[in-house]
Amino acid sequence: MSPRTFTQVPSLSEPLRLSIEQLPKIVADAFSSREILGVLLIGSCSTGQASYLSDIDLLIVLREGPLKYGRVCAFREQWDRVLLKKGSLSLPVHTNYILPEAFQTHEPAMRKALRNAMIILDPEKILVHKLEKLRREKKP
Description:
By secondary structure, the chain is an alpha+beta fold. It has one domain: Beta Polymerase, domain 2 (2-Layer Sandwich), CATH 3.30.460. It has a 4-stranded mixed β-sheet, with helices on both faces. Helix 1 crosses helix 3. The chain starts with 13 loop residues before the first helix and ends with a helix. The model has no long low-confidence stretch (mean pLDDT 80).
């Protein structure tokens, strides 16, 4: 079963869909491929339950390295700079940063978020394989 893309969620409002469509370019401008493996859309937008009050929740999957406060702050600063330069999206975007090991977590909320995630950016096709593997596993 291939991971869904946001274009396969018919319930997304037009402003939400337009904001999400801009994300791959914004992410590519904010982060180099040396820094991230890809980006996943999670939350109500990925499950088809988004409403006019919804925001955009992203998981930025970092390449190997420490997930330390200073590193995450640097990524957030990069993200904010690019959004300011490009003009903000029509909806708020919340970013969370994870390492590839997060795909092996046993924490129920993270597993659910990953199972329902949609790929926004995956240039090396690493995330698609990790999500497929996770979705094939039996739910605890």
